[in-house]
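stuck on this chain:
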Amino acid sequence: MGVKPLPPVPHPVNLNLESTLGCNLECVMCGSHLSGVTKMRRSMDKDLLARVEAQVVDGIDELSLTVAGEPFLTPRLPQFVAVAERNGAELSLNTNATLLKDTGLLRRVMRQSSVLRFSVDGATAETYEAIRVKSSFENVISNIQLAVKIRDELPRNERPRLVMCMVLMRDNVHELVQMVRMADDLKLDRLDVAHLTVLVPEMDEQSTRHISSAADAALHAAQQEADERGFRVNLPPLMNGERVRQSSRAQLRRSLTELKQLSSRRLQRLAKTLSRKATMARWARSAGGHVPCHFLQDGVFITIQGEVAPCPMPGRPIAGNLWTQSFEEIWNGEVLTRMRRGFIDGAPERCCSHCSQNPNGYEPGDPTTAAPPDYEIAGLADRVIAQSK
């Protein structure tokens, strides 16, 4: 008796697009910088973007324009924004905040965005500039303040969420509580924190798995500080995989505050989210099991070479290429179906079993979690050149 085939997964609602590989910084933990591709300043080909818009964007709720590069560095940013505007998709951008200026383009981006994330890995100039090489802490904070000012000038229904992001490592773990204070004092909506992913052996000494007690203590202290301030933080797990929970009192206080700030746009976003959850719950019942990865259920990643992958996480497989296949056949094709089947059967793929996006298997203290499997930085730049049209 053969294995029952999985039902087709409905079209994704989140699209992560590698709009550009170029970046003006040399961050010590960045795989793209270490590979050399960020210096190539490559952006997605306009013909590929047209193919993506024709085959993928219809039905997308959120379009993320960043993975490896700095979106405000590419001169093609207006073209990507236009795709979102034409198709009614909200933007999601990660930026290092070094190039923000009060321009019509920035205001256009902010009006179209659901969220802007500012990558800041230290609460002091000394720590920040040692990690984000070639950046200026003073300039970045000033630019974030500018974005906050512009947000507050926009009608409530056009305001994006402004979020600070931090990669937690040995050299900055002592500033985590300060990061909570700084993000709150800047009037941002949230602080997101992630453990360092070790992409090259030289970075292993920075992994939080070597300072388990200090990392766990910092996470507990950060949550306590956030609770006292009524500020939202998204913290990664403790070293054993357990989550730090906010107090019920702080949760109620924050929920009441956020309820007062609700706009019709956010309510529409919430309605879409709940509708997708209901759709995928029905799919799970039909498939005979649940897939906890939101990428495999709801999203997809497309590189500047046209490669389609389940996600932007290191070590992921390539499911197909839009230059040679249609998106429809890739989305429910062999590779992604096999990965979904792995979760349903209780035997996820090696790249998934310890991934930070897998709530059932992510233990930061485990060396197989700290470093991704089968991820090769050497030669990445050459592969990008060879595979680009």
Notes: DSSP finds 16 helices and twelve strands in the chain.
